[in-house]
What we know:
Chain A has helices at residues 42-50, 92-102, 107-120, 136-148, 166-183, 194-200, 218-223, 228-233, 363-366; strands spanning 4-13, 16-26, 31-35, 57-62, 65-66, 77-80, 154-158, 186-191, 203-208, 211-216, 240-248, 254-257, 260-263, 271-280, 285-287, 294-302, 306-313, 316-323, 333-338, 344-347. Chain A is an alpha+beta fold.
Amino acid sequence: MAEIRVENLRKAFGEFVAVQDSSFTVENGEFLALLGPSGCGKTTTLRMIAGLELPTGGTIRLGGEDVTYKRASERDIAFVFQLFALYPHMNVRKNIGFPLLAQGVAKAEIKARVEETARLLQIDHILDRPVSGLAGGDRQRVALGRAIVRRPMCFLMDEPLGTLDAEFREVMVRELRELHNRIHATTVYVTHDQIEAMAMADKIAVMNHGVIEQFGTPQEIYDRPASMYVADFIGSPPMNFIRFTGGLARGARMARIGAAEVAMPELRADVPPGPLALGVRPEHVRFSDASPLRGAIYGSEYLGTNQIVTVETEGGLVRARLAAEQSYRIGEPVGLTFKSDRLSLFDAGSGRVIPSALHEGALRQEARHG
Amino acid sequence: MSSANTAHSVVEPSARSKRIAATLVILYAVITMIPLVWIFLTSIKSPPDSISYPPKILFTPSLEGYCNLFTTRTRQTPEYIASLPPPEGMCDAVTRERNMVIAGPSNFLPRFTNSLIIAFGSTFLAVGFGTLAAYGFSRFKVPLADDLLFFILSTRMMPPIAVAIPIYLMYRQLGLSDTALGMMLLYTAVNVSLAVWLLKGFIDEIPREYEEAAMIDGYSRLQAFRKVVLPQATTGIAATAIFCLIFAWNEYAFASLLTSGSAQTAPPFIPTIIGEGGQDWPAVAAGTTIFLVPILVFTILLRKQLLRGITFGAVRK
């Protein structure tokens, strides 16, 4: 196992820049999710780490060794493909043993290690079956087995759960995380599914248009989004943006939105006058008749344990995650209050967050909200 | 007509349409088989039976055609034949009945061997080069790939015989006239374009991920090609090989132009049998029958791949 250090990584296909000057480090034993929509450069980044694509610039270090221009076969890595890429002309046993064969491992040892891996993944009963008849989950496990068996420095996975149906995907998310907890392999996992990323990863890198928008723990990404893009991409429903115009001074604790004064974490920078957006997670919105921030009920979605109520305000639609019991009439006027210490203020022009007291101190202690 | 009332599936053909299809297929097969059966029957007729009119369907089989195919004979007086020791073997006896004796082996066997060497050799070369080229075109960014592929295809746009004269002159200069190597090179050149195009289609269908997986598993690209791509391209390779082999095996025009002696193949040789001592149709038919065997065996061995090969792309795995 080893750390992966990526510095100023860049990849251009002709005019199109797929990855722009990305830098990040995956610590030894850490699980990193590269998260983003399709075409954001996450898969290209992964393929460069694997050696399947050569970077246009930058360096990649595996365990301290510069492997930027080394061949895939010379890097000690394992790769799990989206479509598994199990060799169709080999059975399960041969598929799993194939990487060991390349390393010239003795036959008896290959057999032992394949069987050990199969037991770990609970596929020892299908070892001698052809791969063509396997169900999606078993294919997935065989693909994982082929990765694990060689005990590589790190695992790279390209949306390995993308083709599984939703129900089974949850099972595999759990299995993958448990597997990671057991073998502590440095892992880079590409996905467009925020739930997968949040559930499995130690760190998440949110990518957009070839740029890493934010790199951090799932909690950081969720609670302290670095940009409106991240805030919007993570969370279901995503963060609300209440748009307003104004300028604020360093140390300000109030934002004037229309007639209302809204309390927020103390700003750590001056904000020149311009378009701004106040970011509020739906679970941090409450209704209060006394609040000067007014809106009207626009609609509601019942989710069982709670409901998402949408309110139309001057600053746009605001979604609130509320207890499921109360019912609301469409058009009913309501007042809104926000959990003031959890708000993010964004520069709506650049989309970047404005530093505030929110970005200081430990997160876990703050995370005591219901 | 109970079948008209039963519910029928949309995807599964009805029993009646299956019967109609089967009848048509059998009819077609019979029509295609008639010339082959006729050639085989002629090959086991005696020379008089072979030219009798109306044609004989029922006759006493004779292996005279095969005897004549493999031998050369000289006409002798009955007195001379009577003075000879008793005939050794069936062919000797049959020949003496026609007032002839066997003078020696004919050229059929060496010509047939030439055909085998040239056809299989050129098929091997064409498919080998074709696979490598197709893999290259399929996987790498080849500069001007489309133009190159079109150029390769364009070599098939005129009948090969259109360039017969330049090739004839070239071969004479290079000393390749009437050599097995020359014929092999020629057939390879003609077939390689077909092979590249057919195989590129097959290799395009093999996902790149397999090789990428193999390369990550620690294999070089060449090893990945050999261990992962080739096994999966066998269908395409087999189908391509049959097409190439059929062309090279049956090719007549170049063979008759460029070969006359030691490198002559069976197709130009077989018709020459007819001139040796009258209209010897059974010998010609025997030669043709034997000539059909290798291609028949090869096709039957690879028929599964051939079938999948000619319908490739129609159904995704």
